[in-house]
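Aggregate trends can hide what the representation actually does to any particular protein. The sequence in question and its structure tokens are set out directly beneath this paragraph.
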Amino acid sequence: MPETNILHIIDTLGVGGAEKVMVGCVNGLPELKHHVIYLGGSDAMKKFLPDSCKVTSLNLRSKFDLMRCVMAVRKYIRKNNIDVVHSHLFMGSLVARLATPKKVKLYTTIHSLASRNYFANSRIARWIEKRVYRPHHNIIAICHEVFDDYNKCIGVKGPYTVLYNYVDDKYYQADYKRAAFKDEFRMVAVGNLKKAKNYMYLLEAFRYMPDSVSLDIYGAGPLEHELQEVITRYSLNVRLCGVRDDIQNVLPKYDAFIMSSVFEGQPISLLEAMACGLPAILSDIPVLREATNNKGVFYDLNNVKDLVNKVEAILSHKVDLDEIARSNFERVKRVAGRDNYMYLLSKLYLASEPSRFKQPRTAFVKTLAPRLHSPS
């Protein structure tokens, strides 16, 4: 059987959810020949790609440099006999759609709510997306909420798949974590320090938190100095801990995972925490309810005292964290298994070829197999 060449195109190789998924796909399907093109910026995730994967940076300098990148990708596709292109994020997908000939299969993964992210304040970006997205292009949405939002914002024109993100095997613990806190309740948050993560809400809430409650935030980003200034000014029991490559070893040390995002796609950091057995304390937005199947402690983003009250209820054991942790742990095993994800992705890549991958014997795959849509 001839070698199948897969070209992945993404904005950067920085540390982020989309980048982690893309790198995981390369490592998870070693039977295929993978190529990666990134437009520029950070290459922090490059070290996790196998030596067999050819990696190319286009060094995109500005939006006026876009057509050079398009021509470079078009030439690359021809030269390397690319069979499938898989793009991620807005600029990478724009280049991929302009560069990929119709005879080459193109998949674009939608990682977040389009109406709240790429197209929130740009009619031009939305117009461009509608123009370059064609009926023969394939959409992969990471959850139903993301798909519905893209459909309303842009309009789905052709084939699509709802395929939940996966969690790497190294995150899964043997069992969920039982609530055992006494003198201190330790929460953890993971995510880039940017506006959408809404960390300022958590800092405001911590002005009213009991002294026994602490928060460690893992991540980096443009708001680091602003957040640290607030933490220092009010002497909050919050630490900014930077980026860790071994976050799977860090998460199990905490009592609960917290997320305050105003919008999300299907956050890998939440799924990873669930796989580590932690209960989830989450902003009350539809995507997070879908990710957890409504099993979590949800709080109102318009009222910081709501979070404080719910944490105090946890401290007084009025909330059954064990049941939440158990439910989160069982759900992530059911919907975010790595083998399931790779099998389903391989079915998309090799749709016109005999499958080289054995179907895992799980209810998740059997449920998804007819249309590759995730269960509720």
